[in-house]
Design a protein that fits this description.
Layout: E1 6-10, E2 13-17, E3 22-24, H1 25-29, H2 33-45, E4 48-52, H3 57-74, H4 78-81, E5 93-96, E6 101-106, H5 107-112, H6 119-122, H7 125-150, E7 171-176, E8 197-202, E9 207-210, E10 217-219, E11 226-231, H8 233-238, E12 248-250, E13 261-267
Parallel strand pairs: 3-4
Antiparallel strand pairs: 1-2, 4-11, 5-6, 6-7, 7-13, 8-11, 8-13, 9-10, 9-12
Helix pairs in contact: 2-7, 3-7
Bound molecules: 2-oxoglutaric acid and fe (ii) ion (FE2).
2-oxoglutaric acid binds near residues 175, 193, 206, 248 and 262.
C-alpha cells in the first residue's frame, strides 16, 4: 500500500503522523452498518483507530479529573509510591523508576472491594468507578460490532469470552512519562498489547505505531474528545488473525523533558478463556 502520510512539526522537527480512522461511538450505538464496516476495516488493517466520544460529556470530564488525580498521585514521595508496589503482580499497583511511573487499578478490585485502592485515590473513587464502568460499556459496544462483522450469522461470539460478571483482569492504568532530556536515551519498549482492546487518552505526542505495510514508525496524534483504541493479541488470536494487534512503542519526538500523562483502560478477557481461534 502506498499512502502519503500527513506531517506535523514538533519542536522544529518534521514527523510522520499515523493515518488513523475515526469511528463514532454514537453511530456504533445505533448499530449503523456503515460505521460497523469502517470499524472492522480499521481493526483489520492498522489495529489502531480513534473513537469519537465527544458526546459523552460526563465521561470526558472524568478523564480530565483523572489527569489531576494522576498528577496528585505521582507527586508523592518514592517511599509512599512504593507502598502500592505489589511484588509479582503483573496487573495491580504501582510500578516505576526515576522518570516514569504507572498505577494500575483492577476493575474487579473496585467492584468487589477486596483489595483497597491506594488511599490518595480513595477520595476520588467516584471518578475512578464511573471511568471504569463507562469504559467497560464502551469496549463492549466495540466488541459486539466487531463480532457482528466477524460472524454475521451468530450472536456476539466474542461476548462468550468477555462476560461482564466473570472474573477478568480489565483495569484502569495511569502513567507519568516517560520523557527525557535526550531522545537518544529513550529505551526501546516496542510491544503489542496482550488483552482485547485498549483505550488511551494522553495530552502529548509519544505513541508510535509500526505501519504494517512498510514497517515504518508513525506518530499518533492526541485528539481531544477521542480515545485512541488498540486491538490486542487476544482479539487477534480469537479472530484467527482477522483483527490485527499492531506493534507500538512510547517515545518522544525530540530532546527535552516535559511531563507526559496518559490514562488507559485495558479490556481483558475472562480469566478462564482459552486463547485459540473461535
Ligand atoms: O502511553 C502510551 O502512549 C501508550 C502506552 C501503551 O502502549 C501501553 O501501556 O500498552
Ligand atoms: Fe501498548
Amino acid at each position: 500500500m502506498t499512502l502519503t502520510l500527513k506531517k506535523a512539526v514538533v519542536g522544529g522537527v518534521e514527523i510522520d503522523v499515523a493515518p488513523l480512522e475515526t469511528i463514532s461511538l454514537q453511530l456504533l450505538l445505533q448499530n449503523n452498518e456503515g460505521e460497523r464496516t469502517k470499524l472492522y476495516s480499521a481493526a483489520n488493517s492498522l489495529g489502531f483507530f480513534y473513537l469519537d466520544v465527544t458526546e459523552s460529556k460526563e465521561y470526558l470530564s472524568d478523564v480530565e479529573k483523572l489527569y489531576s488525580i494522576t498528577e496528585k498521585y505521582f507527586s508523592q514521595s518514592q517511599e509512599d509510591l512504593l507502598k502500592d508496589f505489589h511484588k509479582e503482580d503483573e496487573f495491580r499497583g504501582y510500578k516505576g523508576g526515576s522518570n516514569w511511573g504507572s498505577l494500575e487499578i483492577l476493575r474487579d478490585d473496585v467492584i468487589n472491594d477486596e483489595v483497597p485502592i491506594p488511599s490518595i485515590v480513595r477520595s476520588d473513587s467516584g471518578t475512578v468507578e464511573r471511568f471504569i464502568s463507562f469504559s467497560h460499556e464502551m469496549v463492549h459496544v466495540i466488541l459486539d460490532q466487531l463480532s457482528k462483522s466477524l460472524w454475521p450469522n451468530s450472536d456476539s461470539r466474542l461476548k462468550e469470552s468477555h462476560c461482564p460478571t466473570k472474573r477478568n483482569n480489565s483495569s484502569l492504568k495511569v502513567y507519568r512519562g516517560p520523557t527525557l532530556e535526550r531522545l537518544a536515551d529513550v529505551g526501546d519498549n516496542t510491544h503489542t498489547d496482550g488483552g482485547s482492546l485498549t483505550l488511551l487518552y494522553t495530552d502529548k505526542w509519544g505513541t508510535q505505531i509500526e505501519l504494517p505495510w512498510n514497517k515504518k514508525w508513525a506518530w499518533v496524534e492526541a485528539k481531544p474528545g477521542h480515545a485512541i483504541v488498540t486491538v490486542g493479541d487476544t482479539l487477534q488470536t480469537l479472530s484467527g488473525g482477522r483483527l490485527y494487534s499492531c506493534r507500538h512503542r512510547v517515545s518522544q519526538p525530540v530532546d527535552g523533558f516535559g511531563e507526559r500523562w496518559a490514562i488507559t483502560y485495558f479490556f481483558r478477557p475472562d480469566n478462564d478463556v482459552s486463547l485459540v481461534p473461535l
